[in-house]
Design brief:
It is built from 17 helices and 11 strands. The chain is α/β, with parallel strands linked by helices. α15 runs antiparallel to α16, α15 packs across α17 and α16 packs across α17. It binds nicotinamide-adenine-dinucleotide and magnesium ion.
Length: 393
Amino acid sequence: MQSLTILGSTGSIGTSTLDVVGRHPDKYRIFALTANKQVDLLYKQCIQFNPVYAVLLDDGAAVKLRALLREAGLKTEVLCGVDALEAVSSLPEVDTVMAAIVGAAGLRPTLAAAHAGKKILLANKETLVMAGNVFMDAVRESGSALLPIDSEHNAIFQALPHDYKGDMAGSGVARILLTASGGPFRTTPLENLQQVTPDQACRHPNWTMGRKISVDSASMMNKGLEVIEARWLFNVDACDIQVVIHPQSVIHSLVEYIDGSVIAQLGNPDMRTPIAYGLAYPHRIDSGVASLDLFKIARLDFAEPDFARFPCLALAYQALRAGGSAPAVLNAANEVAVAAFLDHEISFLSVARVIESVLTSMPVHDVACLDDVLEADASARCAANQQVERLRL
Ligand code: NAD
Ligand code: MG
């Protein structure tokens, strides 16, 4: 029986994880569920899964949940705050941590799981973007098993040799082909992008996701973050990763070997597949995902990415090449800009403008520990907020 903490259980990845877990009550038991402030959904999840702990970031929300659970006669203990998120990620009773908080808020609890040597199912790509070396060092030192949940990285993980240890050349790997749907604006002309609304940006053609990652997909920053994520997960350089536009999102990514073989992982665009893979690794379990109907799909298309219409992708490559604190700065500026766009404060095209000006104006520092990351994050947020003021609609 695996004992599981789900960080961000009320989100898109969190609810999909509970869907898979609910199909296998003989294999998985929920130790802790956590959310920002969604009391009602977390309450329902507690009733269904009866965790030992429920954690809310928000104080008032925790008080409400505690009252509701007491009324329902449940023994689940309700905690609140970041320290509690770290605790439920590292307590000895936990085997596996699903890291599915969105954004930089996921960093501290995910890092705590790594220090504690937990099996980590990593959806929170921002952890690797912000603190790639710090996080990977913690994983190595503690002997954590790290399983990528992001569909592309899960596909790459499946297509790499089973004993892959980060030696691309030694494993005969020529390059990684990272697929991207192109998002809702794949074919939208640049002049029309100025006017697009948050709701349009969140209407992804293939995936249902949280609003932040949906906007990232629309700007293709999501793919940029994923290039950085791949750099750390698989120990590859920026030049070893080719982004391939593939609108159907059926091929989740590919690995090319030096003999010309290209191994891909395919499936319906449903996050329950990589989640089930991570949960059961190295075995396979039913995920509830429908069988892939190739006759219905009929064709698969591919194209090169358009860096002129999607400058965020180029900015991510720029940050990766600059190294040090640059990816943390990129991530922070993106989070501030995306939140401002979702709040109708800046236009869609201004998201890239905010990031570019913050990235080019801030010095690149070495990153050796969590504090270095948090410092870069805080100063980039400050600079990004100033840019948002300048570009405010
Ligand atoms: P979401 O917005 O649907 O859910 C986010 C979860 O995090 C919620 O449970 C929310 O309560 C919690 N949360 C938000 N802010 C918090 C804070 N400050 N402190 C503590 N908890 C907080 O997001 P999502 O789409 O499920 O994405 C989660 C992560 O997984 C992101 O890093 C995203 O990039 C990654 N990811 C998502 C998908 C997908 O299909 N949704 C695919 C690949 C990767
Ligand atoms: Mg992805």
